[in-house]
Amino acid sequence: MSRSTRDLYVTPIIGIAAVFNTGAGLWAFAGPRSFYDLIATYPPYNAHFIRDIGAFLLGLGAVLIGALVWRDVAFVVLLGSTSAAGFHWASHLIDRHHGGTGADPWLTGLFALLLLAGLVLRVPARQSSAPAEDAATIEGARR
């Protein structure tokens, strides 16, 4: 199977997965009770944990969307990780009165900021570098 034929199938699969993960993530994050009642019916109900599931599904959705747009693996991984960490931080802010420690919002926020810094630092490198496929082709030609 040629590369273009594989891409003909792989690209829509990534697109479907991106829509599914992003949609489920938004639903779990924004409506944890209805998500629990219809999808995640494993007792006991815990709004914070359902919101966390949404945060990480949104991170997966961001990676999948990023993979459709960019070929820079480091950028796409940082994009998804930053998205998940940012929503996870928001989950801890929303649910700070439901338990955990007072440090949780600070720690999750600092982690999200660390990932955001990596994402921002990667942007100039991504703009000035050849796509991964071209870099591999160039490396193969050097041998």
Structure description:
This protein has 143 residues and is mainly α. It has one domain. The protein has 6 helices and no strands. The protein has helices at residues 3-30, 32-38, 47-69, 73-94, 104-128, 132-142. Helix 3 runs antiparallel to helix 4 (73-94). The radius of gyration is 18 Å and the shape is flat.
- Distance from first to last alpha carbon: 26 Å
Label the overall shape. Answer: flat
Number of strands: 0
Helix content: over 70%
Instruction: Provide the domain count.
Output: 1
Largest sheet: none
What's the short story on this structure?
With 143 residues, this protein is mainly α.
What is the strand and helix layout of this fold?
Elements: H1 3-30, H2 32-38, H3 47-69, H4 73-94, H5 104-128, H6 132-142
Please supply descriptive tags for the structure shown above.
single chain; mainly alpha; 0% strand
